[in-house]
Design a protein that fits this description.
The complex is a heterodimer of chains A (1298) and B (225). Chain A has 1298 residues and is an all-alpha fold. Chain A has 67 helices and six strands. Chain A is rod-shaped and about 235 Å long. Chain B contains eleven helices and no strands. Classes of the chains: A mainly alpha (1298), B mainly alpha (225).
């Protein structure tokens, strides 16, 4: 219910919201003259009495005193009277007292005045409210007064501060308004929660007692309410209020009146429309009207309002226009435009550059935008850092293990891990394109030198404005060349290097020439004068380097020189700087231009220069640990192609002046240098090599001198560091140049150790040369190296093949032969080598030669290989044989050599240089056979082959007999060879006789003696030879008279020898010699027979020492050849014999008794049985010589053979016994059977049989007597007598025993 | 024990080597071989002894026997020396000594000069035969010879011994003289030297024991059979 009021002066109608005290809206004068009632302090029209309390209206001057009086107890009725009664002084006193209190009110009014400027609704009413509130309270109590007076003395300059301290305000009216003003003032920086704000607004609107409901309602149309964050929940509550109306109705009732007030109309409309929209009440009947009114606000001069309207209607052009304003609203507008990514954001820029406030707005917006992202990103970076740390750890571990070849797989795995992490990387918020546009304008803010100079305002973090502008500009925008140049020159002018740093912290924009900025930024001659500054300067490179901006050559060189000069301090004291330095180097090396090359040269030079060892070590370690100069690339000027840090012609050209030798020497110098750190310079070099070992291997292969130098270095490295270095590198052909080079030099212990570390595939495939060197080493220095630590630790493992001959390298065999040679007295050594190698020797000599390993492949040894490679030629074989063979077959080494000789037995003559050498070999071989010490077990399978080897050499000897003798000596060794040897001897002695009759014959006849006494079957050949070679022997005798005499006498000596009865073998042997003797004599032409020999023969014949039939033949031969000398005296005796022999015709015998011929006789003998007939026939035939006329006592042999049978028969048949005894006696007494008779065999045989037959017979004594008588009769020849006598003696003694 | 298998003839023949065999060491005179060849130690001793005189195998062993039997060893040398010295005067002998090259030759020559009359007939054949027999026994022990062959060879050589020597003492002294000649040492009176020469020691021991009943050589008569 409103009352229409008209101005008293101009009669103009006052607005609906007119309150008492408001001025006229038209003339500005007082609408109605009103005064304050002195009692109730309410305004009342200037009349007689107050319209509120009815008190008398007093003139103005009494008001103060009236208030005092009222306070001291004057009642309403008395007041006017009292006032008027007051004396002037008293009045003045009261007035002054009142004034003191009034000042407080005045101050509140002043505050209100200040607040009014911050709110929308203007008007006097607010002041009235204050007076209503405060004047009533005068006088204040002392405390309040003092407090307020104190407050009054303060002067708060900042409006914001003033609003913040609104709690101190004296008046509640002020306080409530200050709340609204505060929210209206700086919405974007509110610290209160949005819920609280909404709640406050809501309560102020719905509270009818609230002083400033309209003002609070208008806040709904304020920018603040357009924020996404504004909380509309309290307003949307559907429950009705105390008044019974809904909020929306309440709101309309509050704001509707304002629509009638022109200057408030747009505010109210916007607030209404916004609220209705938010409350989904757009179908409200008055909504259309409100909207039309609100649209007018789009053209309002109040930017805040216009912006709100713009927001309300989403009018970009309006917003953009507001955005130009250098006000909080402008910032809000910009934020909105950015948020919407409006295409017309450029319209928000006035002129060609941003205002300061605009920039700040953009900055804060971006900050807000990025805050979430930054947090996520920070977390992600921490994860990445941890991953990298872990990978680095593993990588350096790999390096320590030397498993460089695993890098490939390791790298792949790491890449996978990194990729997995990369996928989880938080995505940056999408920046609106508008930012790029704005960036250009932002940059223009400082293009001008003066602007640049002034843009120093720092933000909360202390970053000056120009840096922030640059940061924003380069992050989002695109530089132009002019801007770049301008800023760089500005920076130079004002010495703001950091500005350029910001420019360079992002990758270069395409097509821009940064050279000036590089020149300025990276050059810092003064900074390098001091340590701290110098490194700070270098540290400042990090960002540009990361962005891909690189210093000029000069600047780079200066920096690197500075680093180098100060390294000693950096290395020891300054961890931080060291790490920064690492980062800088890393970035420089990762450059894709020549900077990487120059830096690499620096790093490599430092890392390889071990004169300053600490430096070198640190660089090398860093290089490997972080992948500098290894596993990475470098670029050289003018070539876009990346080059790898791997050994090769290009690399050598780039870093070692094209000299492989220089590189190799560098490696050699470093090979033995270790490192305190995980990696040393040597590792760095090795790393390059590892990527392309074949290149280096090829060079080493082509230049053995270099390889030898490298080997020395490797040895040193092995001994000092225990590393194998590049020993394993191989050429593209798969060769190992360093291993090959090992074969070119004499070895020492270190070489052995080095060779021990040879690559695995050379475990069996060992180079012959190296084995040879190893052999030289082990056998050299008097063999002492066997006991060296190098042998124990390394070389011993070269011999791990004992089980299998196929794993024995052929080149090792000389070692065995030398160390296990039987002549070697070192038993320990010998045993060791025999254990390893004896598997090479098969069971038997005729087995194939062992198969061994040669150059990694199975290789069957050949004799030729053994002679020419295992030994150095046949001469050495002979030397070996000479020195060792006499130790016998027990030695495996001997057997091995023998086997080789056996398999080449037919070539040995050709191989030996001369006969002497061959003889030495054969002698050694024979010694090998002869030493049977512990060798018996080998005889079966070795000896006969050994003999074959020896025999095969016969044609190589001119002295056949010597050779023969030598072979001969082996005859008795073993049954397996005897036959072979005697066959050989037989065969060869014939040859010897022809070639060298003198010695040959002597040997032959000497052997006859052996035969004679030994009567061994295996010697029977001597007789055959004698028989077969009669002609040759005779021929020899013809030519050598002395030999003839000697041998002739020798034979005669045997022929004339007496053979004991029973020695049938000797007799037979002798008979053969007799025949031979005669045959030889017969063959020789008579005139050649020496007279001395003939004399001897004659003598022997005469003395009847030669058996009859030979002597007969000899005599005939002598006679025939007319060689008879004066031997007349002997002749008669000889002739008497001749006579008796020639008496067969006179021998009378009874043909009936002796009727059987030779054939019948032999049948009879074969079927003889002791019965009467047959015994009788036997007895009759006993003197068979009478018929047969030969001295063949064959019949008598039956007596001997069937002795027991016959004697048993005789014991029963006495007459037959007597007949037999008688017949035997007859034969004994027959002169024909006398020892000098023609049939001495018969006589002797009978004499032998007689005692046997008579043994145990009763007739024995009778025969003894008769024999005795006959013997002493003198009728018999002397030999016959002796025979009889001895027979008698024998019978006698037999008789005595029995 | 083994003696039972030995005929008297065999035993007699084996005894020809009594001195030389005893000089080798602790032999058994009554056994065929004198040593027990089955004992490894003995065999090793025999082997080393045979090696020391240059006999390494059966062929060489037989050859050596042949040489002894056919007088191709030292006796021939001795006889040549004796025949040569026989023609020299004492002064010429002294001059002849100077022409000799080795000390051994000089010593041998002196011994030959000493015995040039005494041993003109027999030479040092007794020594040779003693060696011959001893070798056979050693060979037998060592395995180069069969028992039968030893027997045959003993019978063979016995005749020559009987022919040349008339008593054991005669024979044994010849053995000693031969030993002197071969080894080249001069001893004029055997009884006066220390018994450091095993051969001489054996000589005295055997000579003295010939007539003791417990001696192996008791009743071993030179002329028996």
């Amino acid at each position: 219910m409103s009352i229409v009021v008209y101005c008293e002066k101009c009669d103009a109608r006052q607005p609906n919201d007119w309150k008492a005290g408001d001025s006229c809206t038209t003339c500005g004068g007082m609408v109605r003259e009103e005064v304050r009632c002195t009692w109730c302090v309410k305004l009342t029209p200037k009349g007689k009495f107050c319209k509120h309390c009815g008190s008398e209206v007093q003139p103005e001057k009494y008001f103060g005193a009236a208030r005092i009086l009222k306070s001291i107890g004057v009642n309403q009725m008395e007041l006017g009277e009292k006032l008027r009664e007051l004396p002037a002084t008293k009045l003045e006193q009261y007035q002054s007292k009142y004034n003191r209190h009034l000042a407080v009110v005045q101050r509140a009014v002043e505050d209100m005045q200040r607040l009014e400027k911050m709110v929308v609704i203007q008007g006097q009413q607010k002041y009235s409210l204050i007076e209503d509130e405060l004047l009533n309270k005068i006088p204040f109590d002392d405390e309040t007064l003092a407090d307020r007076e104190k407050y009054a003395t303060q002067r708060i300059e900042s409006d914001l501060e003033f609003l913040h301290r609104r709690g101190e305000l004296t008046s509640k009216v002020n306080l409530q308004l200050a709340g609204a003003a505060y929210y209206r003032w700086r919405p974007q920086q509110l610290t209160e929660s949005h819920q609280y704000i909404s709640q406050q607004i809501f309560e102020h609107i719905v509270n009818e007692k609230s002083f400033h409901r309209e003002e609070w309602a208008l806040l709904l149309g304020h920018l603040h309410a357009f924020k996404n964050t504004f909380d509309w929940t309290p307003f949307r509550k559907s429950s009705s209020l105390k008044s019974g109306k809904s909020f929306f109705e309440t709101l309309i009732s509050v704001l509707e009146p304002l629509l009638d007030i022109p200057y408030l109309q747009p505010y109210a409309a916007v607030a209404l429309v916004h609220a209705l929209k938010q409350l989904d009440q757009t179908d409200y009947q008055a909504y259309q009207r409100y909207e039309i009114l609100a649209r007018e606000a789009l053209d309002n001069t109040d930017h805040d309002l216009r912006l709100s309207a713009g927001f309300l209607f989403e009018s970009e052009s309006v917003i953009a226009r507001v955005g130009r304003q250098d006000s909080p609203a402008g910032a809000e507008a910009l934020h909105w435009l950015l948020q919407k990514d409006s295409g017309i954001i450029a319209d928000a820029v006035a002129g060609d550059s941003l205002s300061h406030r605009q920039f700040l707005a953009i900055e804060s917006w971006i900050k807000n935008l990025n805050s979430e992202y930054d947090k996520a990103l920070e977390h992600w970076h921490q994860r990445r850092f941890r991953l990298e740390e872990k990978q680095r750890e593993r990588r350096s571990q790999l390096f320590n293990e030397g498993a460089v070849s695993d890098y490939q797989s390791r790298q792949e795995e790491e890449a996978r891990e990194r990729a997995a992490l990369e996928e989880q990387k938080p995505q940056p918020p999408v920046s609106p394109e508008g930012l790029e546009v704005l960036a250009g304008y932002a940059l223009n803010m400082i293009v001008d030198a003066r602007d640049f100079k002034d843009a120093v305002e720092e933000d909360a973090e202390g970053t000056p404005l120009y840096l922030r502008i640059l940061g924003f500009a380069v992050s989002y925008g695109i530089l132009t060349q002019e801007q770049l140049d301008a800023i760089v020159s500005n920076s130079e002018t004002y010495d703001r290097r950091d500005a350029v740093g910001v420019l360079l912290s992002v990758p270069s924009h395409y097509g821009l020439d940064y050279s000036q900025s590089y020149q300025y930024y990276f050059t810092a001659s003064k900074a390098y004068e001091a340590y701290q500054e110098g490194f700070e300067h270098i540290e400042s490179w990090l960002e540009p380097l990361r962005a891909g901006h690189y210093p000029t050559r000069q600047a780079l060189d200066n920096a690197l020189k500075f680093v180098k000069d100060h390294y000693s301090y950096t290395s020891v004291k300054d961890d931080r700087t060291r790490n920064i330095l690492l980062d800088v180097l890393h970035l420089l090396l990762e450059a894709t231009n020549e900077v990487s090359y120059h830096t690499a040269i620096f790093v490599i030079t430092q890392a390889l220069d071990i004169r300053n060892y600490l430096l070198a070590e640190w660089y090398a370690d860093a290089a490997i640990r972080y992948g500098f100069c290894c596993r990475s690339h470098y670029y050289i000027s003018g070539s876009p192609e990346p080059r790898k840090f791997e050994i090769g012609d290009t690399f050598i050209e780039d870093f070692f002046e094209g000299s492989w030798e220089s590189f190799i020497q560098t490696y050699n110098r470093l090979a033995s240098v270790g490192s305190r750190l995980a990696h040393g310079p040597a590792d760095l070099v090795k790393n390059w090599i590892d990527y392309n070992p074949a290149a280096l291997a090829g060079q080493l292969s082509a230049n053995p001198d270099w390889a030898l130098q490298t080997i020395d270095a490797l040895k040193e490295g092995l001994l000092i560091q225990g590393t194998q270095g590049i020993l394993h590198i191989r050429t593209e052909d798969g060769e190992y140049p360093l291993i090959e080079a090992l074969a070119l030099k004499k070895w020492d212990m270190a070489d052995v150790a080095l060779y021990y570390h040879r690559p695995g595939d050379l475990h069996y495939h060992q180079p012959e040369g190296c084995l040879k060197r190893f052999y030289e080493w082990l056998t050299g220095n008097e063999g002492i190296n066997y006991y060296s630590p190098a042998f124990e630790k390394y070389a011993r493992h070269f011999f791990t093949f004992s089980a299998d001959a196929k794993k024995i390298p052929a080149g090792m065999i000389p070692l065995w032969l030398s160390e296990s040679a039987p002549a070697n007295r070192d038993e320990k050594k010998k045993t060791f080598f025999d254990d390893q190698f004896s598997v090479l020797v098969p069971l038997g000599c005729n087995n194939p030669l062992a198969t061994v390993l040669r150059e990694g492949e199975a290789f069957q040894l050949t004799s030729d290989y053994i002679f020419e490679h295992i030994f150095n030629g046949f001469g050495e074989v002979v030397a070996y044989a000479k020195a060792n063979f006499h130790y016998g077959l027990k030695s495996a080494a001997n057997r091995f050599v023998l086997q080789a000789l056996y398999h080449a037995k037919d070539e040995l003559i050709d191989r030996s240089e001369n006969e002497e050498e061959l003889a030495e070999l054969v002698t050694a071989l024979s010694a090998l056979a002869l030493n049977q010490h512990e060798a018996k077990m080998y005889n079966d399978y070795w000896l006969s082959y050994l003999i074959e080897v020896i025999i095969a050499q016969r044609n190589g000897f001119t002295n056949r007999l010597g050779f023969l003798n030598m072979v001969w000596k082996l005859g008795g060794l073993h049954y397996s060879i005897s036959e072979k040897i005697y066959d050989f001897v037989k065969e060869n002695i014939s040859e010897c006789i022809e070639r060298d009759p003198e010695n040959g014959l002597r040997a032959l006849y000497a052997y006859y003696e052996d035969y004679f006494f030994g009567s061994r079957i295996d010697a029977k050949w001597v007789i055959y030879v004698l028989q077969e070679k009669t002609r040759e022997i005779a021929g020899a005798f013809e030519q050598h008279e002395e030999l003839f005499i000697e041998m002739g006498l020798f034979m005669l000596g045997y022929i004339t020898r007496e053979i004991h009865i029973g020695e049938a073998d000797q007799r037979r042997t002798l008979g053969e010699l007799e025949k031979h003797f005669y045959a030889v004599i017969e063959q020789v032409s008579p005139e050649k027979v020496p007279a001395e020999l003939i004399g001897q023969i004659r003598e022997k014949i005469n003395s009847r020492q030669i058996s009859l039939h030979i002597s007969t033949k000899l005599e005939r031969w002598i006679e025939d050849n007319g060689l008879v000398v004066e031997e007349a005296e002997v002749e008669p005796e000889y002739s008497s014999h001749e006579e008796k022999v020639q008496l067969p015709d006179d021998i009378d015998y009874d043909p009936e008794e002796i009727h059987m011929d030779m054939v019948q006789l032999s049948t009879f003998m074969g079927t003889f049985q002791a019965n009467k007939d047959q015994v009788e026939t036997l007895i009759n035939h006993l003197p068979y010589y009478k018929k047969d006329r030969t001295d063949n006592p064959m019949m008598l042999s039956i007596l001997m053979m069937k002795q027991a049978e016959i004697k048993a028969f005789l014991a029963e048949d006495m007459s037959a016994a007597i007949a037999l005894y008688q017949k035997l006696l007859e034969i004994i007494l027959d002169p024909l059977c006398a020892p000098n008779g023609p049939f001495p065999g018969y006589g002797q045989m009978t004499a032998l049989m007689m005692p046997q037959m008579l043994e145990g017979s009763m007739f024995a004594m009778q025969y003894i007597h008769s024999l005795e008588a006959m013997a002493s009769s003198g009728a018999y020849s002397t030999p016959h007598q002796e025979l009889l006598k001895s027979l008698t003696e024998q019978l006698k003694s037999q008789q005595t025993i029995s | 024990m083994e003696q039972e298998h030995l005929s008297d003839e065999m035993y007699w023949g084996l005894s020809l080597s009594a001195l030389t065999l005893q000089s080798l060491g602790n032999c058994n005179h009554r056994s065929l071989f004198g040593f027990d060849g089955k004992d490894e130690n003995v065999k090793a001793f025999l082997k080393s002894y045979l090696y020391s005189i240059g006999i390494f195998n059966a062929k060489e062993a037989k050859d050596r026997l042949y040489h002894y039997r056919h007088d191709q060893m030292h006796n021939r040398m001795f006889m040549e020396a004796v025949h040569h010295l026989d023609l020299l005067s004492e002064a010429e002998f002294e001059a002849h000594l100077d022409t000799l090259e080795t000390p051994l030759e000089v010593k041998r020559c002196k011994i030959a000069w000493l015995y040039r009359h005494e041993l003109k007939e027999t030479g040092i054949r007794g020594h040779e035969i003693a060696q011959y027999v001893m070798l056979m026994r050693l060979y037998g022990a060592y395995g180069y010879l069969e028992e039968n062959e030893i027997r045959l060879r003993l019978y063979d050589i016995a005749g020559e011994v009987r022919q040349k020597f008339h008593s054991w003492d005669h024979y044994h002294q010849n053995v000693l003289a031969g030993d002197q000649y071969v080894k080249g040492y001069e001893i004029h009176d055997h009884s006066s030297v220390l018994i450091s020469n095993p051969l001489i020691a054996a000589y005295y021991s055997i000579s003295n024991s010939m007539y003791q009943t417990d001696s192996p050589f008791f009743q071993l008569n030179w002329s028996e059979q």
